[in-house]
Amino acid sequence: xxxxxxxxxxxxxxxxxxxxxxxxxxxxxxxxxxxxxxxxxxxxxxxxxxxxxxxxxxxxxxxxxxxxxxxxxxxxxxxxxxxxxxxxxxxxxxxxxxxxxxxxxxxxxxxxxxxxxxxxxxxxxxxxxxxxxxxxxxxxxxxxxxxxxxxxxxxxxxxxxxxxxxxxxxxxxxxxxxxxxxxxxxxxxxxxxxxxxxxxxxxxxxxxxxxxxxxxxxxxxxxxxxxxxxxxxxxxxxxxxxxxxxxxxxxxxxxxxxxxxxxxxxxxxxxxxxxxxxxxxxxxxxxxxxxxxxxxxxxxxxxxxxxxxxxxxxxxxxxxxxxxxxxxxxxxxxxxxxxxxxxxxxxxxxxxxxxxxxxxxxxxxxxxxxxxxxxxxxxxxxxxx
Amino acid sequence: xxxxxxxxxxxxxxxxxxxxxxxxxxxxxxxxxxxxxxxxxxxxxxxxxxxxxxxxxxxxxxxxxxxxxxxxxxxxxxxxxxxxxxxxxxxxxxxxxxxxxxxxxxxxxxxxxxxxxxxxxxxxxxxxxxxxxxxxxxxxxxxxxxxxxxxxxxxxxxxxxxxxxxxxxxxxxxxxxxxxxxxxxxxxxxxxxxxxxxxxxxxxxxxxxxxxxxxxxxxxxxxxxxxxxxxxxxxxxxxxxxxxxxxxxxxxxxxxxxxxxxxxxxxxxxxxxxxxxxxxxxxxxxxxxxxxxxxxxxxxxxxxxxxxxxxxxxxxxxxxxxxxxxxxxxxxxxxxxxxxxxxxxxxxxxxxxxxxxxxxxxxxxxxxxxxxxxxxxxxxxxxxxxxxxxxxxxxxxxxxxxxxxxxxxxxxxxxxxxxxxxxxxxxxxxxxxxxxxxxxxxxxxxxxxxxxxxxxxxxxxxxxxxxxxxxxxxxxxxxxxxxxxxxxxxxxxxxxxxxxxxxxxxxxxxxxxxxxxxxxxxxxxxxxxxxxxxxxxxxxxxxxxxxxxxxxxxxxxxxxxxxxxxxxxxxxxxxxxxxxxxxxxxxxxxxxxxxxxxxxxxxxxxxxxxxxxxxxxxxxxxxxxxxxxxxxxxxxxxxxxxxxxxxxxxxxxxxxxxx
Lengths: 385, 659
Prior knowledge:
The structure holds 2 protein chains of 2 kinds.
Chain A: H1 3-23, H2 33-49, H3 55-82, H4 91-116, H5 130-152, H6 157-170, H7 173-187, H8 191-204, H9 211-223, H10 228-241, H11 244-256, H12 265-274, H13 298-306, H14 309-329, H15 334-346, H16 350-363, H17 368-380
Helix pairs in contact in A: 1-4, 2-3, 5-6, 6-7, 7-8, 8-9, 9-10, 10-11, 11-12, 14-15, 15-16, 15-17
Chain B: H1 2-30, H2 33-62, H3 69-74, H4 81-86, H5 92-113, H6 119-143, H7 168-196, H8 201-232, H9 243-268, H10 272-294, H11 308-332, H12 347-379, H13 387-410, H14 418-424, H15 426-443, H16 450-471, H17 479-488, H18 491-516, E1 518-524, E2 529-532, E3 535-546, E4 551-561, E5 564-569, E6 572-576, E7 581-585, E8 587-591, E9 594-603, E10 609-616, H19 620-637
Antiparallel strand pairs in B: 1-10, 2-3, 3-4, 4-5, 4-6, 6-7, 8-9, 9-10
Helix pairs in contact in B: 1-2, 1-6, 2-5, 2-6, 5-6, 5-7, 6-7, 6-11, 7-8, 7-10, 7-11, 8-9, 8-19, 9-10, 9-12, 10-11, 12-13, 13-16, 13-18, 15-16, 16-18, 18-19
């Protein structure tokens, strides 16, 4: 059953609750106070028999209650005469009430729900995410095993060394810091252990290289001036302190001394660009293009410079076709669509741009924010209609 | 899909509540029967939708759907199933949903079982219920929405506050809310009567079952909360005069006064203004309780979330209903005519006496609770009004109340004979004096006042028995006659006697546990033994275990009396990884109504464990007394006379407002 069908049925039930009593011909009979007073008279008799009220008082009480009984009966009679029944009641009132139920209720409810609710999000009970949970569970069991092992052997440095990165990945930063400290206390310090401790401390500080973390990294560098992790975090610390020059100098030195195939080079290059430095040209280009914005590699660009006009056009067309193929498979990429549209316009292929615009709107239909952005772009390129 | 269905159901319930709050009211002014009938059908449908919404949230908790922010924040996939259920209301948003669920339940009960009510009264009562419901739906949807979603659900939840991971959470909040919210019906009846301008003896009879039901639940709810605090907080105390506890005690005192004053109104058509005022006050105090607890004014286990926006919203609701209710009262109450007459010494007079003392006690608690808060708000001065204040003011008010209790039951209506009643109570006096003498003989004269407390309790219990014996003419008439009279006795008479005896039981428990309780606070090494009140406790060592979502460090202790092993006690500490918190689990061992209470403190480096070891004589009577009180209320609720006034004998078992 789809969500909207369920909503429709629920709304119908709510409307029914309003319309049903309006449609009933016969008014339900209500209770009345007369019965209560009759019962009270009986009660006085019973109290008298139990001796819970004096003879004279019982008489007085009877008169009191009888008076109430008569008054209630009188009131009931006048009401009976004056009160219109459901049939004689003004029908327009019932019609208005029916309209309230039939129109205001569903409109009001859906309007409020549209503001507050998130109908596009499916429910995600844990069982439905079993695959990831299975993995999670196995981590949990592993952690529990190591933890119980450490409870029995609290001096096992290796155990802490094993579990610390797991803690870090699980987001249990305080535990990770603890474990790293334990390792150093039990097995002695080394440059690597100090920089691992610093990393955990920085994670605990939400990525901020705190004073504690910085001290750990500096200790690590003192032990081994070539400790990459420590150098990198000291650079980040400088960046966070606002000292971009120092940060750039550290990152540049790291890149200069880097072995060409070091896996961390792209990260450092990125950091260097961020602080405003230029990565040294000799350094290896990032081997894998970043997944966010696959573009032409440096080699492609330099090759394009030496090509003839026609070859260059072919090469660009090939790249655009690759982009279009990728977007056909994975359409949820706003930046990709924007690039594709712009490329078609630059190449002068207006028809292709138009059909790509339609595809983009279809692919992004589920996300109102992205849809609006792509619509704005289509408008600005004059591709509507 | 399920969370969104729950969300939409809640929105629809708001829509129905808005209709319920307005259309029937208009119908009752215009005497339009079909518009008034709308109240019942919308009330029932509204309940169905809120129940659906609550079920949806429960389903999200049980299946650990962390795409619901509320589930992610208060649940953990490894929690035992029962806590997955209870954590639904173990947080601010969910507990407010429970609040409106119970509100809708009471509304639907009036709609279904209230067919002995006049049509206009029923329509107006349900309309006022609709106002209350609307304000709380808006509060939930706009400031405390439990159905807000996370687009990227995390893998694991943040776990429920470990202190709340206890079976107590399954029972205490629902019962307490049934009590709090139950008084909303009394409030709605009062407002409806003021709107109609027609308040009479019959009104008192109609409102009685609802007040009684709310009172019962509140009694057990408070007792349950007290017992929970007793075993979970690891201190052995059962009542701390904590503002949160006081917040639940105040509506109880006002509600108890209301129950008694409504009897006078029913019989004599008197005390009308007062009864209406009490009905408004009982619910106002419930609202204040909710406000104090939920707004973050008080910091305690109960204030799940501190958000000023919520506080302001609740304050608005508070001003609207308390201010509005009292204004309406001030405007309409002078129109009420006073009814029947009675002498000062009479059953009615005794009930007035009861009201005087109960409301004064309520005022005392009110002042003691709010004065420190007001002072802090005004000049930032922090003072603490603790047990000494309440012991000095509360106890002197309750002693005359309990002395008067047996007299009230025996005095005749309209004009009573005090001397005659005193003569009939001779046996109770004697029982009290014997109890005092025996207590002195057994416990010595160290505590002078406590034996009198015991004596008073026995006086009340025997007084309640004499009341019953008098009614069935026991020993005055042949046994067969007494038996048939006992069968014919209204259930409410049995209920009264039993509830009064319950108060006495609680008094015995409080007196004994606080006077003759003993304690030892020591550090024990493995194999060492400590003795307390004739019991010997030996420390056998520590053990570690893994629970479902926590780790346990438990101490093993053997308890012996005269060399015989009485039992094994295992107090423990639980460490919850997800929140990095530790809770104390005391070990309790009951010996009759008395308990031995063992709580584990710090474990020192040399292997010794600090422990707190208490002996609490007859402590269980405190809570047993409350259960007995509630049982008396239930008996009274089942009284046939409360259903009088229905147009025809109801085919279905009527008047069980809570299922």
